[in-house]
Every structure is written in C-alpha cells, then in structure tokens.
From TrEMBL:
<dbReference type="Pfam" id="PF00582">
    <property type="entry name" value="Usp"/>
</dbReference>
<comment type="similarity">
    <text>Belongs to the universal stress protein A family.</text>
</comment>
<feature type="domain" description="UspA">
    <location>
        <begin position="1"/>
        <end position="150"/>
    </location>
</feature>
<protein>
    <submittedName>
        <fullName>Universal stress protein</fullName>
    </submittedName>
</protein>
<feature type="domain" description="UspA">
    <location>
        <begin position="162"/>
        <end position="297"/>
    </location>
</feature>
<dbReference type="InterPro" id="IPR006015">
    <property type="entry name" value="Universal_stress_UspA"/>
</dbReference>
<dbReference type="InterPro" id="IPR006016">
    <property type="entry name" value="UspA"/>
</dbReference>
<dbReference type="InterPro" id="IPR014729">
    <property type="entry name" value="Rossmann-like_a/b/a_fold"/>
</dbReference>
Length: 308
C-alpha cells in the first residue's frame, strides 16, 4: 500500500517516536524509505551562510558540511536502516515545509511521516501550548498524500493495528480520509470505526434542544454515514458506526480510548474551504496533540482513490 514513504526528521530524539513508525512501516510494506532533514534557510545571493531551522543560528553550509550532516543522520539511524530494505538519507538547506512538499511530489510519495513538532523543547511543552508545529501544519495543508503525525510513543504501529477510528464531519475532504482509512482496514484486516461528533454548540447556540430533536439529528447522521461511506464498502462487514454529541475533539478522543484505537484518520480541516488556503483545523490539531496513537491527516483524493 505504501510503495514510497517520506520521513521528515530533525534526526534527533524529538523525532524518535515518528522514526519508530516510519521504519516499521517501510519494513512491513518493503517500501522505499526516504529520510529527509532540512537544516537551514539559505540567505540571499550565492552566499553559503544559512540560518539553522531549529536554533536560528547562522552557519556555513558548503558541500562538506552537508556531507557531514548526512553522515550524522546515517549514524543516528544506523540500527533502523539495517532492518529496512531500501533507505535513502538526504539533508539539504531550505525552508523545511517547502522542501518536504517538493521532495514528496518529486518522488511521488504515498505517505509522509513526521512528528507534531520538530524543535528540541521541554517534554510536553508543545501540548501545554496546544499548538502543533508550523512545518507540520503547512505540510498537512498542501500534501497530495496522507500525512501520518506521530506525537507520542506508538506501541502497536502498523504491524499490529487492529482498530482504526475514522472521524468525519461529512466534508469533501473527509471523503478522501474515509478512502484512506477503508483501504488501510482492507489491507491490514483491521476493524473500522466510523465516528461523527454532533457539535450542538456550533449549530444550536442560544437554544435548548428537546431530547427528541437530538435523537433525530443522531439518527440523520447515522443514515448519512451509511449512505456516504458504508455504501462503498461492499461485503466488508468489520465495522461499527457511532454518533456522539459534544465537543468534536473531546468526543473522538474519548471514543478512541474506549475502542483502543491504534490510528485516528481525519481530514485536516473541518470547513468547506479551498484546501490551498485552509489551516490545520482546531479539531484535528487538538486530536494530534492529545491522542495516544498516531493521527493520519488526509485532505485530498490523490493517493487514496481506487484508480491510484
């Protein structure tokens, strides 16, 4: 399913959780794994002065320096590379999200793996601020392929995935996320949980709904899931449908915990707007930061359609 995987990393302990998943995936699917580290931003003209993307410090990035960085990467991932079939290390100067997206397009990548943030910080600092890294946001916004975001240790990874949670808000982008989740379940033999959180605060602010009205909305959402997704699943019957009411990111996290979810699949924003302009949706962002399992952000039909 994943012929080519791109793992975007700083080659430091910050990305160890994502590295574990990326190398495991490549091993299982005998994928071509590209490990990419962008370590600086070029200055104007032909100067070799670059600004380190993590520390903000200036330095010289000539061919020898780039070769040294690649050697550092080889040493850091030496053990994982030995267990992986085809693995290529690449380091270069540039704007991180631009180079990651450019490489993914050039290599026709099927999946990008990265952490929720890429800077060396205090453990949990990013979660405390409830903000994911800007590079991850920009990659998730523009990537043509699914982006697998790993922010915490993954004990099951794709070797053992058995419960995949698909969270939908019925947008067009969610249709692409469904296709990815469904194909993955067919490939691995996982159980698919189709979940929708009825956000009553957003649709009915200032009014108090009768219980019968809420039950009617839940029934309508279930019917929509059956018509929109289940109708595409043929004889696949290893699935459940659940509709809960509440704050979407809270409900999907609670549901994932209840079902021992190994992977959450969502589209990266929640409104029907141009994907080129959309920022990472607040629901996905909070799920990424708080989930105990990896989160796959899927926003476009490329790489998840049946004809791919």
């Amino acid at each position: 399913m994943f012929k080519k995987i791109l793992f975007a990393t700083t080659a430091t302990s910050t990305c160890d959780n994502a590295a574990h998943v990326a190398f495991d995936l490549a091993k299982k699917y005998t994928s071509e794994l590209s490990v990419l580290h962008i370590f600086g931003r070029p200055s104007r003209g032909f100067s070799t002065i670059v600004t380190d993307a993590r520390t903000g410090e200036d330095g010289h990035a000539d061919d020898d320096y780039v070769a040294w960085v690649r050697e550092e990467m080889n040493q850091y991932y030496e053990k994982q590379m030995g267990e992986c079939g085809t693995c290529e290390m690449d380091a270069r100067v540039g704007v991180p999200h631009t180079e990651i997206l450019r490489t993914a397009r050039k290599k026709d990548t099927d999946l990008i793996v990265m952490g929720a943030h890429s800077r060396q910080e205090e453990p949990g600092a990013t979660r405390y601020r409830s903000v994911v890294g800007s590079t991850m946001q920009k990659v998730a916004k523009s990537a043509r392929c699914p982006v697998l975001i790993v922010s915490r240790p993954c004990t099951t990874c794709l070797w053992y995935f058995s419960n995949i949670i698909f969270g939908t808000d019925f947008t067009k982008a969610s249709d692409s996320a469904f296709k990815f989740a469904f194909k993955l379940c067919q490939e691995i033999g996982s159980k698919l949980y189709l979940f929708h959180a009825l956000d009553l605060s957003a649709t009915q602010s200032g009014t108090i709904l009768e219980q019968t009205e809420i039950e009617g909305m839940i029934k309508a959402a279930r019917k929509k899931i059956e018509q929109r997704y289940v109708s595409q699943m043929g004889d696949f019957d290893n699935y459940e449908i659940e509709i809960w009411e509440g704050i979407p990111y809270v409900e999907i996290l609670k549901y994932s915990r209840e079902k021992n979810g190994d992977l959450i699949v969502m589209s990266h924003h929640t409104r029907e707007i141009d994907p080129e302009k959309a920022l990472l949706g607040s629901t996905v962002e909070q799920v990424v930061l708080r989930a105990s399992c990896p989160v796959a952000s899927v926003n476009r039909p490329h790489k998840v359609s049946d004809d791919e």
